[in-house]
Amino acid sequence: MSYYQQQHATSSGSRTARRNFEFGRTYVVRPKGKHQATIIWLHGLGDNGSSVSQLLESLPLPNIKWICPTAPTRPVALLGGFSCTAWFDVEEISEAGADDWEGLDASASHIANLLSTEPTDVKLGIGGFSMGAATAIYSATCFALGKYGNGSPYTVNLRAVVGLSGWLPGARSLRNKIEESNEAVRRAASLPILLCHGNCDDVVPYNYGEKSSRYLSSSGFRLVAFKSYDGLGHFTIPREMSEVCSWVSARLGLDGSRS
């Protein structure tokens, strides 16, 4: 699982006038059994869809099709302008940091487009690690609100979202946005979200993950589960991935699950 262990920071993108985001190659892990669900999994800062697909291929989830896109390569403010693959730009990982809404919307839209061509009887989900987790959680808020940050409609029917070692962009303003619409309240209450975080994470601090869970719950997301892992840094471990598998199987009602 070196892919997770090689993450050193979590953020990305350029907020300059560059508005055309060129996404990298998408990798697909096809289901070994009956195709019941499709989940997009988003890599962390500086990684790519290939290494993610290799990890997911080994998971005991034969009824899931995994789609592993690669983020655009762009300058990252957090890294002093160094260019690498990143779903959006970030200057600092903190609640007070400015959010790159343009980058977030571009990535969330790209992900939704990938899911929009899946069969109608297949359940759809999004997951990710670190910055990928932040993008997955942002997509969850777009689903609840029925629109992206720029106001364009969000039309994908999400059934599950997983975020490992991540955080919630725009956390402080979420509750007010959700409460403006009864439909947003209903959608937020219907979406299962699993957040996992190690209490020794030195890249995305543990309390950011914990606070993200609380912000989501207080904003009306009633099906949020938060799991903490003692001694875990900014990477994953087999026990965490095993619990992700169990949660996904149960929440999506996959064959063989004990829900």
TrEMBL record:
Pfam families linked: Abhydrolase_2
Question: What protein name is recorded for this chain?
Answer: Phospholipase/carboxylesterase/thioesterase domain-containing protein
Q: A GO molecular function for this record?
A: hydrolase activity
* Gene3D superfamilies for the chain: alpha/beta hydrolase
Residues in Phospholipase/carboxylesterase/thioesterase domain copies: 27-249
* Organism encoding this protein: Trapa incisa
Q: Where are the transmembrane segments?
A: none
